[in-house]
Amino acid sequence: MVKVEIVEEKEQDSRSPYSSPSSSRTSSSVSLSSVGSELDGEESFYERIVALADIIPPTTRQSISTKLGNTVGALKTTGKVVGNLVWIVTTSALLIGLPLALVLEDEAKIVQQEKEMLAQQQGAQMLAPPGSLYPQPGQPQNPPKSPL
């Protein structure tokens, strides 16, 4: 756990070049607050960002710019490759998959019709007696013999 203590400055430390009398400290903070409030209305967000360029050294700015440019280039390339792959898969599915699905559906319909016809023939055979005047489906029809 961290314990924070406020340390009071002593008068002996006034010999240090970094120390300042307490009155100058308060006056500088007051002046900074008044300057900050004056600049808020005059300065835009863009101007503040542009002003940050002076704070960052040129080598660091160049490094950031290079890395950002490389990242953007990689994202563009990746997006283009992914877009091409999606296009290839989509057109392949439409050109190959759709006709294949339609053919399979037609084949299933034909098989279903064949099953229904077979069921009808079996039902007719079960209902018709063996010596019936009506021929069974699938057998040639013999004309009745005339008594002449």
UniProtKB/TrEMBL annotation:
GO BP annotations listed: intracellular protein transport
Pfam families recorded: Tom22 (PF04281)
Signal peptide boundaries: none
Compartments in which it is found: Mitochondrion outer membrane
Keyword Mitochondrion assigned: yes
Ranges for region Disordered: 1-34, 119-148
Biased composition (Pro residues): 137-148
Keywords: Membrane, Mitochondrion, Mitochondrion outer membrane, Protein transport, Receptor, Translocation, Transmembrane, Transmembrane helix, Transport
Biased composition (Low complexity): 15-34, 119-131
Xref: InterPro entries: Tom22 (IPR005683)
Spans traversing the lipid bilayer: 85-104
Membrane topology: Single-pass membrane protein
Predominant cellular place of this UniProt entry's protein: mitochondrion
CDD domains tied to this protein: TOM22 (cd22884)
Superkingdom as given in the UniProt entry: Eukaryota
Biased composition (Basic and acidic residues): 1-14
GO cellular component terms, A-Z: mitochondrial outer membrane
Family: Belongs to the Tom22 family.
Protein name: Mitochondrial outer membrane translocase complex, subunit Tom22
Organism: Dichomitus squalens
